[in-house]
Write a structure and sequence with these properties.
Jelly Rolls; mainly beta; 15 strands; 260 residues; five-stranded antiparallel beta sheet; eight-stranded antiparallel beta sheet
């Protein structure tokens, strides 16, 4: 999808964002919206400055981050981040995942990924809790683009191995009152410019303690009222990331829908 920019309407967009409405262009190549922070630009400097390993119960690696900076296979002269750490070989998830140093509540996220080989596996974890799956070849509730175990895979939106894909996500964290959750997390998502999830409720943290925050708390049902970073999963596969940015929001109403 061709990216469109409206610089003359920037003040209007800022006003909308301030009252909890997210508007942005979507798809591969989408540029950061006003107020967004770039967190992956393909450089080692940004990787080291804004990311660390998540030291969960399955963690096996050590700083500095062993993920590689490699050439973009589609654009000569550009570099991207590659999810490769030797300790994760064989699919040992949780052993070398990376997470942003900054933690978030409500946000708008744009992230681009490329799976290099069939069966390539990674994952995008919202708040280091809730996985949006990156898994070539899987069209189930555990498959590509699924809000894991909550939705079916919108596999038809996937461009395939060796090509760049984009998730555009608006996420609203759970709300609590007197220490009890009164509103569950919500997410809406475009996959390569196609809206595939709309105000999808997330019921729990799936996958156990190695999956992220609260995964080992009451079998993932014990979601807590604390922010979390954006996490990327290392499964011992060559999955690459670029052009990733995030903007903090304050979504007062339980609505994550947004337009291009």
């Amino acid at each position: 999808m061709k990216t469109r920019r409206f610089p003359d309407l920037s003040c209007f967009f800022l006003l909308l964002a301030s009252v909890g409405v997210a508007h942005a262009d979507v798809g591969v190549g989408a540029m950061p919206i006003e107020g967004a922070e770039t967190i992956i630009d393909g450089s080692r400097e940004m990787l080291d400055a804004k990311w660390i390993y998540w030291e969960g119960p399955g963690f096996k690696s050590a700083m500095p981050i062993k993920w590689k900076i490699v050439e973009d296979p589609t654009e000569e002269g550009k570099t991207v981040v590659m999810s490769d750490d030797p300790v994760a070989a064989g699919g040992k998830y949780g052993s070398a995942d990376i997470v942003t140093k900054k933690e978030y509540r409500d946000f708008r996220l744009h992230i681009e990924f490329l799976v290099m080989k069939p069966g390539g596996n990674s994952g995008v974890y919202l708040q280091n809790r809730f996985e949006i799956q990156v898994l070539d070849g899987d069209k189930t509730k555990h498959g590509m683009g699924a809000v894991i175990n909550e939705t079916e895979s919108p596999y038809e939106a996937y461009t395939g191995v060796g090509k760049w894909n984009a998730y555009d996500i608006t996420f609203r964290t759970a709300r609590f009152k007197d220490g009890k959750m009164v509103e569950k997390p919500l997410v809406s998502m475009y996959f390569n410019g196609k809206k595939v999830h709309l105000n999808q409720t997330i019921n729990k943290v799936w996958g156990g303690p190695n999956s992220g925050l609260d995964g080992g708390n009451d079998d993932g049902n014990g979601i807590t009222d604390r922010p979390g970073g954006l996490k990327l999963q290392c499964e011992g596969h060559d999955v690459r990331y670029r052009n990733t940015w995030i903007k903090e929001l304050n979504l007062e109403k339980p609505d994550t829908d947004f337009t291009e």
